[in-house]
């Protein structure tokens, strides 16, 4: 199997002021031209789950209250997975080009999670007009804009993950 190296380009900040993406100084030039995009794709590392036993989990017991009793990890958004890569589409609030700091509306990450990559969200390649989902999650919001008002705490069985 081929091995490769991924280097963090920054880290996430989650604090009382909000949600931020902070680039390391050597990567700040990479956000030039990002102004004008409303959203970005963020790839980061679930570093708090980076232990060998978490990487062997391939099935989880009822991670969602209305899901089947067992789901394969690739049918979930669980942080326990063979490669601890996380992905979120987030809305840009502000960009401080000089500091390499991007404030976003929300980010499903822990403070100080290693940032792997950011890409501009472009609907021409990423938007699916009529996605299909299993029956147990058809009642979930249809877009990121309405997701913030959804009672997610009523959906997850966090202790079983």
From TrEMBL:
Domain of life: Bacteria
Keyword DNA-binding carried by entry: no
Record GO biological process: methylation
Pfam families recorded: TrmO_N (PF01980)
UniProt GO MF annotations: methyltransferase activity
Coiled coil: none
Keyword DNA damage part of the UniProt annotation: no
Domain TsaA-like: 6-130
Keywords: Methyltransferase, S-adenosyl-L-methionine, Transferase
PROSITE patterns: TSAA_1, TSAA_2
InterPro entries in the cross-refs: TrmO-like_N (IPR023370), UPF0066_cons_site (IPR023368), YaeB-like (IPR040372), YaeB-like_sf (IPR036413), YaeB_N_sf (IPR036414)
Similarity annotation: Belongs to the tRNA methyltransferase O family.
Protein name: tRNA (N6-threonylcarbamoyladenosine(37)-N6)-methyltransferase TrmO
Native source species: Enterococcus rivorum
